[in-house]
Design the sequence.
């Protein structure tokens, strides 16, 4: 299979998704044009694969950097995973119970939560999803690539207690947790190395703090106008907002469609 002309990575929340958590018609049309131009569109998200399958189906994207780079699929093929050590997870679960912070367990095929809690309902209502099934022992049954702390605050003690992990607040209701050194940027590096794509031009659209490492890796970082200031500071170009055709307009700016 020939190399793509370019690869474009799209964050989801606040970027590819509008504020009503849908993909704009202009974005769907733009992504279809990328396919026609031999440019690979890839989702790059804090969410896991099974969580966004409906978006991948809708946009006909079969490539994704999932869970902040902890799992990478390219054209449906798994090229990288970054599992968290089970003993570390067990320590974190115990640490969290002492602080009344429920935990969610994610891999590329499933999601579970430790407790049927108000914190879980708050998060998944915010994401406009139903809470995953409860299984406090999921980490003993499946490889886990990302954890969520289901809390609005209280995460400040975790980085010192777990120096082998990275903690990033991704919504008002949760903190993403994964192996130190893991990031969207690291997942992209693994993809480019595995597929010998070092010479393929790369673009990324994003708006949030978990896009920082991705913006540092790609050739052309594009911030949404609704992005946080640190992301705008790293951007080569600032496009329109996620609610005002920012994806399509940004792709046109770079001549990709």
Sequence:
């Amino acid at each position: 299979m020939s190399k793509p002309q370019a690869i474009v990575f799209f964050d989801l929340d606040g970027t590819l998704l509008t504020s009503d958590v849908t993909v704009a018609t202009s974005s769907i049309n733009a992504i279809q044009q990328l396919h026609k131009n031999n440019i690979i569109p890839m989702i790059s998200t804090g969410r896991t694969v099974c969580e966004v399958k409906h978006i991948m189906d809708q946009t006909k994207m079969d490539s994704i950097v999932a869970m902040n780079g902890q799992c990478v699929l390219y054209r449906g093929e798994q090229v990288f995973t970054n599992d968290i050590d089970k003993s570390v997870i067990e320590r974190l679960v115990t640490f969290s119970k002492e602080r009344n912070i429920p935990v969610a367990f994610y891999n590329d095929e499933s999601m579970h939560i430790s407790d049927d809690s108000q914190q879980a309902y708050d998060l998944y209502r915010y994401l406009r999803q139903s809470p995953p099934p409860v299984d406090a022992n999921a980490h003993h049954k499946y490889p886990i690539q990302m954890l969520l702390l289901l809390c609005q605050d209280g995460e400040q003690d975790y980085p010192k207690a777990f120096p082998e992990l990275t903690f990033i607040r991704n919504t008002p209701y949760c903190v993403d947790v994964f192996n130190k050194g893991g990031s969207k940027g690291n997942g992209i590096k693994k993809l480019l190395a595995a597929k010998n794509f070092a010479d393929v031009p790369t673009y990324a659209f994003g708006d949030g703090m978990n896009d920082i490492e991705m913006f540092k890796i790609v050739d052309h970082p594009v911030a949404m106008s609704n992005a946080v200031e640190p992301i705008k500071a790293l951007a080569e170009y600032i496009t329109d907002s996620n609610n005002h055709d920012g994806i399509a307009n940004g792709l046109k700016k770079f001549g990709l469609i």
Notes: Residues 86-179 form a domain with the Hypothetical Protein, Haloacid Dehalogenase-like Hydrolase; Chain: A; domain 2 fold (CATH 3.30.1240.10). Residues 25-36 form the longest helix (12 residues).
